[in-house]
Amino acid sequence: MIARLLLRLVSWAVLGYMLLPLVVILGASLTASSFLAFPPKGWTLGWYTQMLSDPSYVASFATSTVLALAATLVAVLLSVPAALAMARYDFAGKGAILAALTSPLVFPHIVLGAALLQFGGYFGLTRSFLALLIGHTIIVSPFVLRSVLSMLTPEQRALEEASSDLGANPWSTFWFVVLPLIRPGIVTGSIFAFISSWINVELSIFNTTPALNTIPVKLFNYVQYTVDPTIAAASGATILVVVVAVIVLDLCIGLDLLSERK
Fold first, then answer.
1. Do the beta carbons of residue 157 and residue 86 sit within 8 Å?
2. Can you give the chain as a three-state secondary structure string?
3. CB 187 within 8 A of CB 251
């Protein structure tokens, strides 16, 4: 009993330590002073208004959103078939291929960004939305792949075979049997993929331009020259996007259900 209580206290302490920087950022974004201050010196939403009235911030938010959505969609379209192939078939080099597909999880993104910049230079794909999309798809696909693979259990395969034995064609089997079973994995992987793309700096910085900028790179460049509550307001808006993504995950499949399925 005492050990369990101590474990809970330690868990809450660690959680509070992790959340404290977010509280500081959100508090500083509401300060009425012209400089970063926590606790806030007065309360105002003026810094959010100033951020949203700046076309460069709006453009950066729009670029990040479109890029994250596009990279997530492409990652799902590529990773779901790859996961099905990995789960269903045994072939030479299967382990090596799986390791290669999931390697962006462990490779430093700054190394991948530099490599893509140099490689893309041979094809004229540098500093463009397509270059960003290719890079982001590479780094977010492993999230979808691993999440879907965890759903493809032997029990799922047995239900798929039963559907085929009862006369269902491959498309009907996938749509009515396989897809509902792997949906939690797709949703979970997509949420993590979207968040990973949204907050990425290391890879994005190699292929952005003043006219094509993501919000994390915008903040990274801005803070080098100016530090005011606008940077906190933009960071607060970014935190809000991540929170909304987690809420969507909970509403779609439920975090409790996800932990049980895992």
1. no
2. CHHHHHHHHHHHHHHHHHHHHHHHHHHHHCCCCCCCCCCCCCCCCHHHHHHHCCHHHHHHHHHHHHHHHHHHHHHHHHHHHHHHHHHHCCCCCHHHHHHHHHHHHCCCHHHHHHHHHHHHHCCCCCCCHHHHHHHHHHHHHHHHHHHHHHHCCHHHHHHHHHHHHCCCCHHHHHHHHHHHHHHHHHHHHHHHHHHHHHCCCCCHHHCCCCCCCCHHHHHHHHCCCCCCHHHHHHHHHHHHHHHHHHHHHHHHCCHHHHHHHC
3. no
Cα–Cα distance for residue pair 203/196, rounded to 1 Å: 11
- How far apart are the C-alpha atoms of 27 and 189, rounded to whole Å? 31
Which has the closest alpha carbon to 135: 115, 149, 152, 151?
115
| Per-residue confidence (pLDDT) for residue 51, from 0 to 100 | 85
- State pLDDT tens for residues 23-58: 888 888 888 887 777 777 888 888 888 888 888 888
Q: 206 near 113, Cβ under 8 Å? A: yes
Above 50 in pLDDT, residue 165? yes
pLDDT, position 29: 85
Q: How far apart are CA 37 and CA 33, in angstroms?
A: 7
pTM listed for this prediction: 0.82
pLDDT of amino acid 74: 95
Mean pLDDT within 196-218: 88
Q: Show the CA angle centred on residue 168, arms to residues 164 and 173, nearest 5°.
A: 75
